[in-house]
């Protein structure tokens, strides 16, 4: 069974709301699509490929569903 999290956010006068930073980081996403299904609005994470450490978009390696760039892999190997 999928784990679900309920977060209530108010929309400001310009139609904006904030996605909590912890949620963005733990889910590792920077883009999403908006789906409308009846009365439900669903935000679905989009796979924009970037390094989870430095946000670089070059020379990425996918590991456990996340991306890490070669430079950060080298830094990790030096520790
Ligand atoms: Zn990196």
What would you say this structure looks like, in words?
The chain is of the alpha+beta class. It has one domain. The chain is built from 2 helices and 4 strands. The protein has helices at 21-27, 70-78; strands spanning 31-37, 40-46, 60-63, 66-69. The chain has a two-stranded antiparallel sheet. It has a two-stranded antiparallel sheet with strand order 3-4. Strand 3 and strand 4 (66-69) form a beta hairpin. The longest helix is centred in the C-terminal third of the chain and has 9 residues, at 70-78. The chain is elongated. 6% of the residues are buried. The structure holds zinc ion (ZN).
Topology:
Blueprint: H1 21-27, E1 31-37, E2 40-46, E3 60-63, E4 66-69, H2 70-78
Antiparallel strand pairs: 1-2, 3-4
This protein binds zinc ion.
Question: What is the gist of this entry?
Answer:
This protein has helices spanning about 20-25, 70-79, and strands at about 30-35, 40-45, 60-65, 65-70. The chain is an alpha+beta fold and about 80 residues long. It has one domain (about 20-79).
Strand content is 25-35%
What kind of sheet is the major sheet?
2 strands, antiparallel
Query: Helix fraction?
Result: 10-25%
State the separation between the terminal residues, measured CA to CA: 38 Å
Low-confidence stretches: none
Mean pLDDT: 88
How many individual β-strands?
Answer: 4
Query: Mind telling me the C-alpha Rg?
Result: 16 Å
Number of domains: 1
**Main sheet strand line-up:** 1-2
Which structural class should the secondary elements be placed in? alpha+beta
Bound molecules: zinc ion
Query: Globular, elongated, flat, extended or rod-shaped: what is the shape?
Result: elongated
Secondary-structure element pattern, one letter each = HEEEEH
Annotation field: number of helices: 2
